[in-house]
Amino acid sequence: MCGIIAFLGNRDNAGKIVVDGLKKLEYRGYDSFGFAEKIGDKIRVSKSVGKISEFKETAKTFAKTNLAFGHTRWATHGKVNRVNAHPHASADSKVVVVHNGIVENHADLRKMLEKKGVKFVSETDTEVIPNLIADFLRKNSPREAVRKTAQKLVGRFAFVAAIAGESKLFAARNGSPLILGIEKFYPKSDEKLLAKVDGSAFFIGSDVPAFLDFTHDVVYLDDGELVEIEESPTKDHFHGHFFEIASGRPIKKRVISIDLKASRAEKGDFTHFMLKEIFEQKETITRALNQDEKQIERVAELIRRSFGTFFIGCGTAGKVCATAEYLFAKIARRHVNVIFGSEFDTQEAFLTDRTLLIAVSQSGETADILEAYKIAKQKKVKTVGVVNVAGSSVARQSDVVLPVNAGVEKAVASTKATTAQLAILTLLAFTVAGKPEEGKRVLAEAASSINDFLNPRYSAHLEKIARKIKNVESLYIIGKGADYPMALEAAIKLQEVSYIHAEGFAAGELKHGPLALITKGTPLIAFVPMGKFRADVLSNVAEVKARGGRIIGVSPKNDELFDEWIRVPAVGAAQPIVNIIPIQLLAYHLAVLRKNNPDLPRNLAKSVTVK
Ligand code: G6P
What we know:
Layout: E1 3-9, H1 14-24, E2 32-39, E3 42-49, E4 67-73, E5 88-89, E6 95-101, H2 106-115, H3 128-137, H4 142-152, E7 157-163, E8 168-174, E9 179-183, E10 193-194, E11 196-199, E12 201-205, E13 217-220, E14 225-231, E15 238-244, E16 253-254, E17 256-257, H5 260-263, H6 273-279, H7 281-289, H8 293-305, E18 309-313, H9 315-332, E19 337-340, E20 356-361, H10 367-378, E21 382-387, H11 393-397, E22 400-403, H12 416-432, H13 436-453, H14 456-469, E23 474-479, H15 483-498, E24 501-506, E25 523-527, H16 534-545, E26 550-555, E27 564-567, H17 575-593
Parallel strand pairs: 18-19, 18-20, 20-21, 21-22, 23-24, 23-25, 25-26, 26-27
Antiparallel strand pairs: 1-4, 1-12, 2-3, 2-4, 5-6, 6-7, 7-8, 8-14, 9-12, 9-13, 10-16, 11-15, 13-17, 14-15
The structure holds 6-O-phosphono-alpha-D-glucopyranose.
């Protein structure tokens, strides 16, 4: 959802640093990109439509400068074209800004500025920001102009601004992530809270991978905060100063050293991150189970004591949450509520200080979840974050955090984080039932079976099936119990990367409508369980088969109804975890066969930081 990176420091290749950083943030948005460089008293802006990874640099691309910043865009306001690409400059060219988020009151601000004679060139909401700063600059210092502008903006945002003639960078945050990286941070004092930090160079990024090659000393900006970076009077290093947007008062922040290894992600021998991340599931389930027992027990106790537990998530994480309803019913004999993050605000009537909110989020930055947290805080609801990105907003705002431990997930379509989240919710259900050891055993067995079946031969089998169905218009997926949300998740996975129309249904629901969509050759992927529901699901499968449907059975056991059999191990309560893996592979192969980039699906972004 738009990537931002900025650099100011003691190197003269700031433009190159910024463009390389943007390439690492491409998963946040890839409609267009741009960067700005300070050249003398001017700021030069370069921008282009398309993916930053396809940008061809030449010897003349970058100026010699120590200040630059850039942006990779996921369009919200305004078409995908060069004019709407960031950075945006004020009409007088004095102020240049990159921005992530939405300025909800941009129409009013634009009108106000137009009355003052400002001419706008783009359709974006962002363009009001540099123009407001330019307007405030008439009577204010640069920092005050930026602060007053940030105060005027309604909505979730993060922006970086530079002013022509100033060797300074400003960044403000309210709702969208911004992290400061400090190279050669001195004096080293991780323990202390500091209002001013010194370093040889500063980075500002919407995610840490943007600058990890340079430093792992970071400061996470919180909502309502502003940072000003400037050269030291001795001109041999740089300062970062932190301020509260509302009052302009200096504030103290903590410098954190992040675990470099865990934050790096390279493709290695794999053609795509998605494939690499699918294969990493050989070990990520085990890592997910490596939880602090006391914390899991603490959350289990919160669930037992709560008067209403809500699981919330968006997209894939929302489907993971939906399994909780079935897992808790079966394993812990407990009812829990499940709702998408964007719908949580409809449940206000039920929220009290006895409610528990469990948010599942890979990035920990999804705006719909953070909005839900706002309501939760107002109503004194306790919060638990099941989060993959340590240090993310959800992690920092949760009363208790259960880390997903899947490592950096780069591909937009979530895979390894999904199954790790599923493992944690399953373990939680067992813990609530007072059987954490049994939960660990079931999940450890599932993890070891994944290690066995997830191999290149298995992937080749899925590729063969993908070849047979790659030209279909639609396909459907069914499941019962916790496999039903997995059918929904399978549909998302297939939609996201193959662009084939895919829909998931509860197995028994097919005959109540969707059966009308089945014609000769329509693929139906069926999660067919062992045990008491097998016969039910098989009879739903038979109804499709009778109408010419082509059956792809995902099951530990073959059946004569299946045209294709995707074998999965029988792993009891962990079945949803192993069932979704072959569909991730199928989606991946379909994407590649259809010449789509599975890592960067069209119109999507990895973390959606707008409502
Ligand atoms: C976006 C991504 C999805 C993801 C969802 C929730 O829509 O494209 O893959 O499932 O956000 O993200 P989160 O980081 O909260 O899990």
